[in-house]
Design goal:
This protein folds into 2 domains: 254 residues, no CATH class; 153 residues, 3-Layer(bba) Sandwich (Glucose Oxidase, domain 1). Helix content is 18%, strand content 18%. It has 9 helices and 22 strands. An 8-stranded mixed sheet has the order 15-14-21-17-18-19-20-16, with helices on both faces. It has a 5-stranded mixed sheet with strand order 2-3-4-8-5, with helices on one face. α7 links the parallel β18 and β19. It starts with a strand and ends with a helix.
């Protein structure tokens, strides 16, 4: 699993899972679910025009327009002067925000196929944030529909934009209403209590540096609004009006080999909190997986003293240092011990005994007290050829964030339980040898982020994460995917293979 960068999106609908199951206005046979979150400002529904209209390609397969829902003087209408940046020609903050929105919309428009114009109701508003973390934005389909003309499956919920595409007509409860709703953090990076210094980069060229690339976030959120999300309640497993969503036909419980359509509410709820328990079973995605994903990282423990700890361990990857690869980096595993309780934090340069122990070997350190980069620097300076970090809290496999081009050794993170098992095999070591061999490499028979049958996994942490669980790809995937629950620094603006698996999933559900 890879590290994540700075902050999460708020996947599907941050505000509420409440539903209004009223008639859609077309006929009583077209029920809908209203999921648009209130933006907290006066709504001014203005279709984005100005110079942005020229950006829409005449050859786009779908026309997507932005409905500006900000009041005068704020958000998209913010008059603060700014200089053009990264191909974005806007001269005010509001203009640049609008331009980036339409750029991302045009990118999706060139990818999709629909004869019905797709409308996105959007606003920049204050969202939850602190000095160290922030909600970047959220997006959701505004309505869901079943039993519309040409519906591929009867009695099945489809997101509004997709339902309109399949029907060949504009299906909305109110004429001109948005098919999806989106809100983004207007305070990000602009105030000391909201990720100062890490605001949105409004350029179009992916040169975000320390900032957060807005176009990448928009491509992610628009995918949610197009249907990359669950409509079934992940906590209870209950379906809206006891009706499955098209998403449910492809969510496979890989422990029972039953889709969510075939499962009980209790089974659905349990699979949503089973780590690596849900797979995407769509043909388009599964066919594209070998083009996109790389082999899974692996820690192999062996040697005469390994005992019951011998075997292969799933690991979290580091964003720093060389990636794990074959042939693996192998050496005796030696723990750093610099705390009274026998743990080793490696937050300071290693003392002589610890430096002697790790020199030419793989260092085992504990998570805590300082960042992963500091630990890697210190064990590398002492001569270690690799680093394994054992977690200090129960939980699932997680990656390690940070960046330092001077780090030249591979690193991997293991769970607390794995750390306990491996440490037990190190009790009879000498000062320089343990007889336990650690090999940091990859499993050539398994692609990162997939189940044993080669299907990509969904994000299902063992502790339910509202707005993130189930409606995203796993964070185990390599390379990082656009539709993971966090924004990673190495993402491009791609949504299709060979770089990304977002569009194949939308194709699976009907796009």
């Amino acid at each position: 699993m890879k590290p994540t960068d700075r902050s999460s999106d708020c996947a599907t609908d941050c505000a509420s899972d409440s539903a209004s199951n009223s008639a859609a206005g077309k006929s009583s046979g077209h029920p809908r679910l209203q999921q648009a979150a209130a933006v907290g400002v006066a709504t001014v529904a203005l279709v984005l025009a100005m110079a942005l209209g020229a950006m829409t390609s005449a050859h786009a397969a779908a026309n997507i327009v932005i409905l500006n829902q900000n009041a005068a003087g704020v958000g998209f209408n913010d008059p603060t002067p700014v200089a053009p940046v990264g191909g974005n020609p806007g001269t005010t903050l509001g203009q640049q925000r609008l331009y980036a929105f339409q750029y991302a919309a045009d990118s999706w428009g060139a990818t999709l196929d629909s004869s019905v114009t797709i409308r996105i109701g959007a606003a920049f508003v204050p969202l939850s944030c602190s000095a160290n973390s922030a909600v970047l934005g959220s997006a959701t389909t505004a309505e869901i529909w079943s039993n519309f003309p040409n519906a591929p499956r009867a009695n099945t919920w489809y997101p509004g934009a997709l339902a309109s595409k399949l029907a060949g007509e504009d299906i909305v409860g109110t004429p001109g209403a948005p098919h999806m709703s989106a809100s983004f953090n207007s305070r990000l990076g602009l105030f000391p209590d909201c990720l100062p210094g890490s605001g949105f980069y409004l350029g179009l060229d992916r040169n975000a540096g320390a900032q957060i690339d807005l176009v990448t976030v928009l491509l992610h959120e628009f995918a949610h609004g197009l249907g990359f999300q669950s409509f079934t309640d992940e906590e209870t497993g209950e379906q809206i009006q006891n009706t499955p969503a098209i998403w449910d036909y492809y969510l496979l419980n890989n422990h029972t080999n039953r889709t969510w359509v075939e499962s009980t509410p209790a089974e659905r709820a349990q699979s949503a909190v089973t780590w690596r328990g849900l797979s995407w079973n769509g043909a388009r995605v599964t066919a594209a997986v070998p083009q996109v994903l790389a082999p899974m990282s692996n820690l192999a423990i062996s040697g005469g003293a390994a005992g019951q700890a011998a075997g292969n361990y799933e690991v979290g990857d580091a964003s720093f240092g060389p990636p794990l690869s074959n042939p693996p980096v192998s050496g005796q595993l030696m723990p750093v011990v610099d705390q009274a309780d026998g743990t080793g934090l490696a937050c300071d340069p290693l003392n002589a005994p610890n430096a002697l122990a790790v020199r030419g070997n793989v260092a085992l350190v504990d998570r805590g007290s300082c960042d992963f980069i500091t630990k890697a620097r210190n064990v590398q300076a002492a001569g270690a050829i690799g680093m394994v970090v054992a977690d200090n809290q129960p939980g699932d496999v997680t990656g390690m964030s940070g960046n330092d081009p001077a780090i030249a050794i591979p690193s991997a993170r293991i769970t607390q339980a794995s750390g306990v098992a491996i440490k037990a095999s190190l009790q009879r070591r000498s000062r320089t040898q343990s007889g336990v061999i650690a090999s940091l490499g990859v499993d050539p028979n398994r692609l990162a982020g997939t189940d044993p049958q080669g299907r990509i996994l969904l994000y299902t942490p063992s502790i339910y994460s509202p707005g993130s669980s189930v409606s995203h790809y796993t964070t185990d995937a390599k390379s990082n995917q656009l539709m993971e629950p966090f924004i990673n620094d190495d993402l491009t603006h791609a949504v299709k293979p060979p770089r990304d698996l977002t569009f194949p999933l939308l194709q699976d559900i009907g796009w």
